[in-house]
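4.2 Preliminary Data

To establish feasibility before requesting continued support, the project team ran the inverse folding procedure on a target of 259 residues. The structure was first converted into the token representation described in Section 3, and no sequence information of any kind was made available to the design step. The complete token record follows.
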């Protein structure tokens, strides 16, 4: 996990291209509450189809070829001091916008990552390499940025994708879970029957701060009798201790950022 560097150019970036911010759930007593941001929609990457095609091709290799490729990657990482060189590219592609959506917040903007096809592909590939052999049957994406990372991961590992949405967004019968926010509560929903008992689920989001959203997603998955194998995020804000709220549930992140 690599520490995310805040570039000088990022700090001076114009705020005209703002993505809708999302809400961060209430931090435990004594933690920083300044990470509060509203959830919304993020821009779609125009290169999604070519990315999926490239990943699908990579998974047609035999187990022997996979082992050789893994050995080559491990050797390269060892030569780099154990750090996958792709992480530096991913970290440098994430823009940090100060005082958005309100003063005191350092907003982690992944739209600049999506504008870099190579870094975006590296992000998806790192997740796929971790989960392709773990018998994941469900990738559950948390609204809204989990919808960006989740589907290409699900396609590549041969799993179904399930969107976990805010209230009144899903048309069918839903199961709901309420969770705490800084100034109240919110609710997460998924379709009844989308996740089945015995499914092995991976929960995907762009960022973990205080961990409340992921906790709600875990509860929804487990209520229907499925197993949460792991939670996966591109970015972690370690000062908010969201990892601690997940209890014994594993968390995998690519980069961390001091807020």
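Position-by-position output of the design step:
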């Amino acid at each position: 996990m690599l520490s995310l560097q805040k570039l000088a150019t990022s700090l001076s970036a114009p705020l005209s291209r703002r993505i809708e911010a999302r809400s961060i759930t209430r931090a435990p007593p004594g933690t920083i509450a300044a990470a509060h941001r509203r959830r919304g929609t993020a821009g779609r990457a125009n290169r999604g189809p070519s990315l999926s095609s490239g990943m699908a091709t990579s998974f047609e290799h035999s187990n022997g070829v996979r082992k050789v490729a893994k050995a080559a990657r491990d050797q390269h990482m060892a030569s780099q001091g154990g750090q996958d060189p792709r992480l530096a590219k991913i970290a440098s592609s994430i823009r940090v916008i100060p005082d958005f959506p309100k003063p005191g917040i350092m907003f982690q903007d992944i739209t600049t990552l999506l504008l870099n096809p190579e870094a975006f592909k590296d992000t998806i590939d790192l997740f796929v390499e971790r989960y392709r052999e773990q018998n994941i049957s469900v990738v559950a994406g948390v609204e809204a940025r989990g919808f960006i990372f989740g589907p290409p991961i699900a396609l590549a590992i041969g799993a179904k994708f399930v969107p976990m949405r805010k209230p009144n967004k899903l048309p069918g019968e839903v199961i709901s879970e309420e969770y705490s926010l800084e100034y109240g509560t919110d609710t997460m929903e998924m379709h009844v029957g989308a996740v089945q008992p015995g499914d092995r689920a991976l929960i995907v989001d762009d960022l973990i701060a205080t961990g409340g959203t992921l906790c709600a997603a875990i509860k929804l998955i487990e209520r229907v009798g499925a197993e949460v194998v792991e939670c996966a995020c591109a970015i972690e804000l370690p000062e908010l201790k969201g990892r601690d709220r997940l209890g014994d549930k594993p968390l995998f992140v690519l980069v961390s950022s001091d807020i």
